[in-house]
Write a structure and sequence with these properties.
The protein is mainly α. The chain has two helices and no strands. Helix 1 runs antiparallel to helix 2.
Length: about 70
């Protein structure tokens, strides 16, 4: 679970900076001085999603092997 969260966080950070490079001017035009608030809210939203994904992965792996995987 923590590996999924950490890997997702590293990937999200990379994609977030790529997104910022190409979309920042549009955000400034649309939201003005509040674009940093919008970016902060987006970042919190993505991190919460990654956290719950990691939590679900941890819960599933703690139950043991996946059902239906027996030969």
């Amino acid at each position: 679970g923590s590996l999924a969260f950490t890997a997702g966080l590293v990937l999200a950070r990379s994609f977030f900076w790529i997104y910022m490079r190409y979309v920042r001017d549009g955000l400034i035009r649309n939201y003005g001085d509040y674009y940093t608030l919008i970016l902060g809210l987006l970042w919190v939203y993505f991190v919460m999603g990654l956290f719950f994904f990691g939590l679900c992965a941890c819960h599933q792996f703690s139950k043991g092997p996946l059902k239906g995987s027996e030969a």
